[in-house]
Amino acid sequence: MTFRLAPLQRGDLARCAELETLVFPDDDPWRESAFQSELDAGYEYFGAYTDEAGLVGYAGVSVLGVKGNAEASVHNIAVDPAWQGKGIGRALLRALLARADEVAAPVYLEVRTDNEAAIGLYEAHGFTRIGMRRRYYWPSGADAYTMARPAQAAEEAP
Fold first, then answer.
1. Across residues 98-115, what is the average pLDDT?
2. pLDDT for the residue numbered 27
3. What is the CATH T-level fold of the domain 4-156, as seen in this structure?
4. Residue ranges of the N-acetyltransferase domain (predicted)?
5. Where in the chain are the domains?
6. Residues 97, 149 contacting (CB under 8 angstroms)
7. Is the pLDDT of residue 157 over 50?
8. DSSP per residue over the chain, as a string?
9. Active-site annotation holds for 108
10. Distance in angstroms (rounded) separating the CA atoms of residues 50 and 100
11. Does the annotation count 122 as an active-site position?
């Protein structure tokens, strides 16, 4: 199974919204307009593409500030359930981290406390839990951990 990462295209936003309903059905999945707003704001999104299925995953990050005084925030990562467990989420996360590492930015994110697979992935990439947000996800009311990864220069990144 092969896939490639590329900058997310505006033509893929309807598929992103479709994937949101598959991956996050209980937590107010983003609509196409939300992804449009993210791209309009200049946030960076990557898509994971296969020849067989087209877009099977996406991930987005905001990087604010300049090198030495920047901060990054992972906005979302989602992979079609039929394609999970094949390294796509890991590759998407690494693409986001590489972008943050270009400006040596610490990286922050929120993750559901019951999403053990995602928590394990983040911990394997240097994230630690720094807090909890009660009832963060709506409408499910699920809690989220806030996780952080210290800044790394691009040459130090794993």
1. 96
2. 87
3. Aminopeptidase (3.40.630)
4. 1-152
5. 4-156
6. yes
7. no
8. ---EEEEPPGGGHHHHHHHHHHH-TTS-PPPHHHHHHHHHTT-EEEEEEETTTEEEEEEEEEEEEETTEEEEEEEEEEE-GGGTTSSHHHHHHHHHHHHHHHTT--EEEEEETT-HHHHHHHHHTT-EEEEEETT-STTT---EEEEEE----GGG--
9. no
10. 25
11. yes
- Tokens coding 158: 């794993």
Is-contact 125 97, C-beta < 8 A?
yes
Locate 109 and state its tokens: 């994110």
Strand partners, 132: 145
pLDDT digits (tens, 9 = 90+) for 51-74: 999 999 999 999 999 988 999 999
Tokens 């905001």 found at: 62
Measured from the Cβ of residue 11, the count of other Cβ atoms closer than 10 Å reads 8
Place of tokens 């019951």: 114
Q: Are 81 and 62 in contact (CB under 8 A)?
A: no
CA distance 152 to 112: 25
CA nearest to 110, candidates 71, 65, 77, 152? 77
Active-site hit among 20, 110, 136, 145: 110
Determine if the pTM surpasses 0.85.
yes
